[in-house]
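Below is how a single chain appears once it has passed through the pipeline. First comes the sequence as given, then the structure the pipeline wrote out for it. We keep one example in the README because the format questions we get most often are answered faster by looking than by reading.
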Amino acid sequence: MRTSILALAALFSVACGSSWSNTGGDGGVGGAVDMAKSKSYPMGPYGNQTGEVLADFTVAGFRLTPKQTDSSKLQWDPGIKLLDYFNNSGCKALLISLGARWCGACRQEQGALVADVEADPTFCVLGILQEGIKNSSPATQADVEAWTQEYQQNFYVVQGNTKTWNPLVKGYGSTIGLPFNLILKPQTMQVVDVVQGFNPQIHDVAMAAVKNFSD
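Resulting structure:
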């Protein structure tokens, strides 16, 4: 059962409020992962606060890339991991963007992220669709399919669930602003900044945050 509902149902131009929680709904990298140089995921302790290593998790979705933005030509992949990004030496910054189909600010962010990845392939993005078209409804595979067909993302887009929501947003309050963006340093998978709501300068913010971060 769901233990909470969305605290705010209205759409905002900058951010959408969410306090999502559920027990179901289980089910991109800008460049190719060099599996010949595969590395084990960084050791903990893990967390989602600045300076902490975000724990690896496995999700299902589409491995969209700048070369393939049509999800209908890809298989639904249940084995997408954060490890994929740690193993990608081409990533200078990793943005994990958590959103919902009903969220206007999340929709607004998609085009900006696509343009950012196209302009700078070292800016890597993992899009997590946490909720569907209705406020407080967990995202389904059909939601992810519709979301990716609408926006033709050039980065991985996956289906959110409790394995994504709880580790990513715990400790940031009962109501958060969507899209909820965690910025990671890919070389260590440490959280370096958090941006709640749509920021059209998210690429520059992420790059600066990674550059200025000191372990």
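The chain has one domain: 24-33+43-212.

See the next section for the split statistics.
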